[in-house]
User: Fold RagB/SusD family nutrient uptake outer membrane protein from Mucilaginibacter rubeus.
Amino acid sequence: MKNIRSYYKIVMLAALVTMGQSCKKYLDITPDNVATIDYTFRNRNEAEDYLFTCYSTMQHLNDVVNNPGFVYSSEIVYPNTLNDHYFNEAGFNLIRGLQSNSNVSLNYWDGANGGLAIFQALRRCNIMLENIDKPIDLSASEKKRWIAETKFLKAYYHYYLIRMYGPMLLIKENFPINASAEEVKRKRSSVDEGFEYVVSLLDEAIPDLPPVIDNQATEFGRITKFIALSVKAEILTTAASPLFNGNPDYAGFKDHDGKSLFSATYDAGKWQKAADACKAAITECEAQGLKLYTTPPTVGVGNVSDKLKKVLTLQNDITEKWEQNPELIWAMNYGFTYQNFTIPRMTSAAVGLASTNPGTFAVPIQTADLFYTDKGVPINEDKTWDYTNRNSTQMGDDSSAPLIMSGYETAKAHFNRELRFYADIGFDGGIWFGNGKRDESTAYYVQARGPYALAGPKSISATNITGYWPKKLANYLSVYDNIFTTENYHLPVMRLSGLYLLYAEALNEVQGPTAEVYSYIDKVRARAGLDGVQASWSNYSKNPSKPNSKDGLRAIIHQERRIELCFEAQSGWDLRRWKELQDVLSKPIQGWNIYEGTAVNYYRPQTIIQPVFGIKDYLWPISTNDLIVNNNLTQNPYW
Assistant:
């Protein structure tokens, strides 16, 4: 009963944070004549409630519409011409060049336009550490764990700010309440100092974190040792990456005292630290029983072919319940709440619910083109695949079943693709297993061409602007018919497959192509039904030697991560740290000609967004008002 009570307090306190309650409101849980801090830490239960407030900001950071890794990757685009107010659309506007230092979107510095003030979360963490000795009934073991959890949270919140803003104010401790106005005007630390501090906090926390969560029903989401080690691996890989490691674009970036905030010197040793951290994380994860998800789902599944079982396995590796998914390293402790934006209308009854379940998370053609052919190489490299005529049409038949509807005309680009393509993307003519039909012979297929098609354009607020849906984000047990019934799941923050590819990336930067690098890429590819990198490129690529050089293998690893982690709020961060986001957003974002009813006219790419992105956009601006309030701050370059 106590654990259930704690679980509901987490949820309620998280909701209060999301609604923007001030720190004073959080602590204002006692009569006015009682010292608030002393009351809050008067016993173990109250102190645990405060620990949950330290966690609560994490939920908002990883809510996808507020996560730059999701909205700023262009993997999914949103119309932004609507006045529907389903959610704050500020993040999706970023690719349209609407960011400014007077109106910062996803402002996690101040807490505005879809962001929360992370500095308030850091203040709460410091309050927790300052008062952890007060509860008289807190056991020594719990105290060590809670301190470790709070240090992890401090590290993660600082890391989130560094990824966004670069050189950061390090909130190592709170100022005393009587500090002067000048004393509280902190200065930005260099990027290297920031990463060093974050890693030092994790190193302090890791020994005292539990190896696993014992009470899975109530404590999923709380930090374990393998979570912390995996986050440390990601942080060190980020620190080693081109955005932060000897970036010439920021060579002259200094504060008002002349201190360099970015090192202009590339440090190859950072990649070795990253590789070591990745290996340590993998070792701990595997020791605790984590492994790639390879078991086909069985709940309600009827007669299904082996090929479709493989597709369902790939789709289910993120939508499976956490306690049944051995691949999940870390996920948030509430469900992914946007499935009504990811599922197309496939029944006539669903059309009547279009205004509330719009299916408007739209996947651009460029994202669909990322996925390999069934030979395991990029579509523009496969010498057996007709890249030139990919936008012409072809009829589905028995050879393309059960992935494409037999007798339905669709784009040639949809044929002979890798299984992750069919698991991740819903397309016109594509089979959509689930939605209440769980037998292969009765499965729905998507009909998207023109306004008279079930999934086609309806009202302004119920139109998928590209003609592709992020199927990966839809649980096969969710149903969109005369009502919308959601089977919830926890969207991963980290999965083991991502950690494997992170290790391959770091190791390639240290050693170049080696058997060990190939092996970790190939683990992920094998689960997707593909041959290894060397065999696939040797047999099918127009560039067979590509995996044999560090540069070539780097490009392969980058594409492999973008495919494997597609729609999981990872690619936006990856493209940023690789300094590849500018290249991705230099091209028009395209979708199909969605108002046309015939296949020949529908499959003509149309530009839907002309993105705006420059060097300055790799870092968030600090708002003009903050620069006025704290004259020790310097604006980020090019803003």
Confidence is low (pLDDT under 50) at residues 1-34. The CA atoms of residues 367 and 516 lie 29 Å apart. The two ends are 53 Å apart (CA to CA).
